[in-house]
Specification:
About 60% of the residues lie in helices and about 0% in strands. It is mainly alpha-helical. A two-stranded antiparallel ribbon has the order 1-2. The chain starts with a helix and ends with a helix. It binds N-hydroxyamidocarboxymethyldethia coenzyme *A.
């Protein structure tokens, strides 16, 4: 058994025992009450699942196993003096709850490299899709096509004991995460660079090699990818992509199918696709205003016009957060260090000054502040990654780290099939009469 899997086995056995005894002794205690507003309003805030890997505070933002993003930047191992953490370290932390040592993270980089070979039929599936297929659809199709390699599905068909589900899920999670950068880079090069692919550099880490295979050789871009793939990894369990993976996974479909479900959810413009919408919004604004250095008044006019057309301002607002997203701030800190002269980055910063008061003025937006997607595109454009329909794939590669480590926990703890209750409007009418 590998070192990470053995650590997970020991931790999971302890925690599962505790979880069982909590339910046995305290199972009847009420964790929440649900209002009709929540029933109609997308279940905002309803406490309804266990998610060990991260927790989201509305004011403070995300903490991964208790650590904020600035803390992780200091504590997680990095590569050769780079000031960004390695996402391998975050995966380790999320899976077993411990900050790994450098040698453990190096082991994980090597282990993912060993598992990274993508089956030939997956490339054939991608090649068969028309070139106008959105990169997120390509990404999802590739993931579904690899379900043929699922160890969980094979072992389930052979009669696996339920006590071994975690083991097979761990193997699938590790294999899938290892392969995602190769698939994503293949989609990018196929769709936007005449099918000219770049061989992996086996001396690099998971994110560095991904940056290399995308075809951007700048070392700062490798550093950016390490930051990007760390901060997008997890946002507790209730967000749409994570919850979808949890729901699909609860049926005991494989990690491949559950993750593909999560990716179809990430592909919506109110969720992960917002990162492409933000840069599209900025490009269209530059075109309409006829300048890449618009004044704040010009930006305010364009924002107002967008709202008047019944559209949202992409990259702003959040279902949980009530302050600027620390994932936005982490990218801003990176951009302040390397890209303060970039015209497009400066537009992002002006939007940050202009948009919140306008959204606040509408009187209905609960969070007028920028979210993670408000900043990422401008930085990618600076390094030459301008093809914005690819951006959500980058998000998806990162999201695998959180949702698949969480799925390992769900399988270890033996969580059952998820099955909440729906009600009809007749039920609501009766309920109102009686209450
Ligand atoms: N621009 C304009 N209106 C907005 C808005 C925005 N950025 N954010 C919220 N609102 C509006 C809502 O549309 C809603 O209007 P109606 O009552 O007329 O329907 C009202 O304000 C109340 O919404 P809310 O309670 O503040 O926000 P929700 O929890 O319902 O929705 C969203 C949260 C993220 C979906 C929303 O803020 C939004 O649409 N933002 C723009 C899209 C975006 O950036 N999505 C990415 C979010 C982060 C993420 O998941 N990244 O992957």
């Amino acid at each position: 058994m590998d070192i990470l899997k053995e650590k997970f086995r020991v931790k999971a056995a302890e925690i599962t025992k505790e979880a069982k005894s909590i339910v046995k002794e305290h199972g009847a205690k009420k964790a929440d009450e649900v209002s009709l507003r929540q029933v109609f309003g997308g279940m905002r805030g309803v406490k309804s699942m266990i998610w060990e890997t991260s927790n989201l505070d509305p004011e403070e933002g995300i903490r991964f196993r208790g650590y904020s993003i600035p803390e992780l930047r200091k504590l997680l191992p990095s590569r050769n003096g780079d000031d960004q953490p390695l996402p391998e370290g975050l995966f380790w932390l999320m899976l077993v709850g411990e900050i790994p040592e450098q040698k453990e993270v190096d082991w994980l980089s090597d282990e993912w490299e060993k598992r990274a070979t993508v089956p030939a039929h997956t490339y054939a599936v991608l090649d068969a899709l028309p070139s106008h297929t959105h990169p997120m659809s390509q990404f999802t199709a590739a993931i579904v096509s690899m379900e043929s390699e699922s160890i969980f599905s094979q072992r389930y068909a052979d009669g696996m004991s339920k006590y071994d589900y975690w083991d097979a899920t761990y193997e699938d999670a590790m294999n899938l995460i290892a392969k995602l950068p190769r698939i994503a880079a293949y989609i990018y090069r196929k769709t936007f660079h005449d099918n000219k692919h770049i061989e992996p550099d086996l001396s690099l880490d998971w994110a560095g090699n991904f940056a290399h295979m995308l075809g951007i050789s700048d070392n700062q871009f490798k550093s950016l990818m390490r930051l990007y793939l760390t901060i997008h990894a997890d946002h507790e369990g209730g967000n749409a992509s994570a919850h979808t993976v949890h729901l699909v996974g609860s049926t005991l479909s494989s990690s491949y199918m559950a993750f593909a479900g999560g990716m179809t959810s990430l592909a919506g413009p109110l969720h992960g696709l917002a990162n492409q919408e933000v840069i599209k919004f900025i490009f269209e604004m530059i075109e309409e205003l006829g300048t890449d250095n618009p004044s704040k008044d010009e930006i305010a006019g364009y924002v107002q016009k967008t709202l008047d057309a019944g559209k949202v301002i992409p990259g702003y607002g959040h279902a949980v957060l009530r302050q600027p997203d620390p994932r936005f701030t982490a990218q801003r800190v990176f951009a302040e260090k390397y890209l303060s002269d970039s015209t497009i980055v400066n537009i992002v910063w002006k939007l940050f000054e202009v948009v919140p008061p306008i959204l606040e003025g509408l009187g209905k937006v609960k969070n007028p502040w920028p979210n993670v997607d408000a900043h990422s595109g401008a930085i990618l454009v600076h390094y030459g990654l301008k093809e914005y329909s690819f951006y959500t794939v980058l998000f998806g590669v990162s999201r695998a780290l959180g949702v698949l480590s969480a799925l390992c926990w769900s399988r270890a703890m033996g969580f059952p099939l998820e099955r909440p209750k729906s009600v009809t409007l007749d039920w609501v009418r009766e309920f109102i009469k009686e209450s």
